[in-house]
Input
Amino acid sequence: MAPLQSLAQGSMFWQPDHVEASPWLDHLPWVFWLMETMRPRRCVTLGARPGSPHLALCQAAMRIDPDTECLLVSDDSETRDIAAAAERRYGGCHRLISASPARAAKRMQSGIDILALDLAGDDENMDLVLERWLELMSDQGVVLLSGINGGDASPIHYELFVSLQERYRSLSFHHGDGLGVVVVGSTPPELIETLLARWKTPSAARAVRDVFARLGRGVADQAVSDQHKAKLSHVQQQFEDVVQERDATSERAEKLRQTLNLNEQALAKLSEENRLLDEKLADAHGELKANNDELASVRKTLAETQSTLEESNARNAALEAMVAEKDANISTRFNELAILTDMLEEADKKRDALEQKAARLFERNEEKKRDAKAFRRQLAKAETRDAQRKDEIHELRESVNASEAAYGDATAREHEALMQVSKLQDKLQERDQELADRFEELGDLTAAMEAREAELEALTLKLAEAAQPKSAEPSQPRPVGKSSKRLGKKAEQRKLQTAIAEVEASQWFDAQWYLQQYPDIASDDNFNRRPAFHYVKFGGFEGRNPSPHFDSAAYLQTYPDVVATGINPLVHYLRDGIREERLARPHDAGSDTKFGAGEST
Output
């Protein structure tokens, strides 16, 4: 493979005749190199914005081969000045086609070697127009697009260059507003082939970019120097005008001195008259002084009165503000008090209802107690009767020996008495169980009443706290679970910082390229200091690339399992993708995914 020194051309160091600030200014050395390398037969420039590359193409054509045809296709109002400058300097090779690029493509013959797009960045039909012109390119055809860094009003130039990269071989320069070089021809010159081959090596591509970036800065510095020279010439002209005006002023001053001498003579005559007038004026001044003293006294009194009045007005305004603030606070307090009063009234109603229910329960309890006492009295009587029955049975048992018949009757009466006693005992047990149930119900109601009283006391305490100043409110208890949430957030932060550190340490992330590629990030104070944070947190999922060597959108589209994990595409590639032999730029078929071994921009 030929060394990089073989790519050098003398045209790289030409000085452009026409220097004007534009997206092409920093890339004119490359335009000259391309013209000398290709020695084209036909060059076409679409559009005519200030600083058009058409003038540079014409200048190179005149020096290399005057028979080269340089066409300017535009119908804008700015075309006239550029066409006039080209006709005046390079009339032999310049030709203007006053038509829109779309219409001119219909009647243009094929065989275009160099096509330069200088259309406005807001032309959304630019891709359709370019497709028509691509059909007219020669076998060694090259397309030039400026502003691929996104410096124009819209990103159409960048999007168009990206779409062409997918179909053709390309080069890109990122200094200035950026320049895209798309090789659409199948047989470009040998030096172009050599450059494309070496471009696959990042170090070689970087060396070429650095060379043309320095040459471009020299051209830009020349533009600045020309501007300074123009300003200096203007300042010198202003200085000469000031010198002429100073000389004219000196002549007028001499005439004024002569006039002054004449006036001094006339003044001497008037001095005597003034002396007499001064005496009269002195008398008038005496009277005037007395009047002024009196007027000063009056003004002083008026000033003191005005100051007192202003202080009084200020105090009144302050008092009115305080009264308004007090009224607002009183209104707020009255509203809060009305709400709390409603709450207290509702609590009082609940408390009265509970007290009534408790009173009813208490009456029922007293009634049950009276029933229990009556039952106990009946039980005592039954026990007394039982004792009497036992005595009677005893007497009957004693009389059993007297008569067998009498004994049978006594046994029957004894059995009947025992049955009655058993029934009375069962009834007594039922009464005791019912009484126990009533006592349990009374305990539950008493507990409910105590709970309601506690709730009432809490509402009363809340009302008292609300009536106090807000500064006296107790601090809220610390919510449960905040520490665990805080620990979770810290863990997420550690994961994010680890991912950012991995991206920054890798060769796949180019911070300077990232900021140049995405000006909205470069202009954001929150992200431009650490662009890796933006890429890991947002950029990778938005389809932004960390460098020309890794395609985030294509990686996520090709490997949907990465999307399911929610991990940044480059972080996944660094941790697992390289080991799993996944592609960094899946859409570039056949390219080596290892950094520095074949990635093309």
The two ends are 20 Å apart (CA to CA). The longest strand covers residues 137-146. The chain has a mean pLDDT of 81. The chain is about 65% helix and 5% strand.
